[in-house]
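Exercise 7.
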Amino acid sequence: MSAIVIATFYKFVPLDDCQELQTRLQAHCEAISLRGTILLAHEGINATVAGNRSAVDSVLSWLRGDARFADLAHKESTASEIPFQRMKVRVKKEIVTLGQPEADPVHRVGTYVKPRDWNALIQDPDVVVIDTRNDYEVAIGSFEGAIDPGTEKFRDFPAYIEENLDKRRHKRVAMFCTGGIRCEKSTSYLLNQGFEEVYHLEGGILKYLEEVPEENSLWRGECFVFDERVAVKHGLALGSYDACRGCGRPISEADKAAATYEEGVCCPHCHATLAKEQRERLREAHKQRLLARRRQKAQPA
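Solution. The predicted structure, written as tokens, is:
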């Protein structure tokens, strides 16, 4: 069985034809049996899609045929099965939700720092280093000495900045995220708030883990990713976490040993919050996945 390719990509670029682009892109993706989610907004595009090699190549070629996406960069991983049920192309207000219209990376963004130069920057005692990701992401890994803002979602980030950072005292701020998209938004926001020197890790944590040798790394733990891998380590090797089907959070072996864990349904993080109807849907979906796997194993090679 050929491997499934998972491609992620984003680009901040003005789009004035989102509705028309949505229709054409949805049709193309369905025609090539691609699945996943593509978000379109006036500020750009953000996507994670999965399919066979030819399908992924096809959608990337289709997009790059548009001058606005000619230089579109993407990252890839592989999986044994498609982690999405359907193809969704959606038009949203933002491709990554911060809720601050003045944060516009198309017009203003922080200084990009290459992975090879990141260690020197964040070890400078005059630099405030902030992890822009959500609390459950930070919990399994982050850079040594980085501040965890304790946010549950990205749109909480401006409130954290307002309450904890002072542009008169914090002259140099460095931020990082998984792949770079949240940092572009957050650096643009800080610059608009009057902060003078704002930096972000180019290519995000994933590029750092790919390029910086483990013996020279300041990364501690694993990096949560939004695909079937769940988490990765140095060299982008597969991490040790699974994902809860109920809430999507990374779960460890200790989480799975808890009395409140139910495979395919819930974990200690969401056990108390899932409604009865949600549990039943998740149990049925888990049963169907197990049946599908059994049928696949029963098929002759």
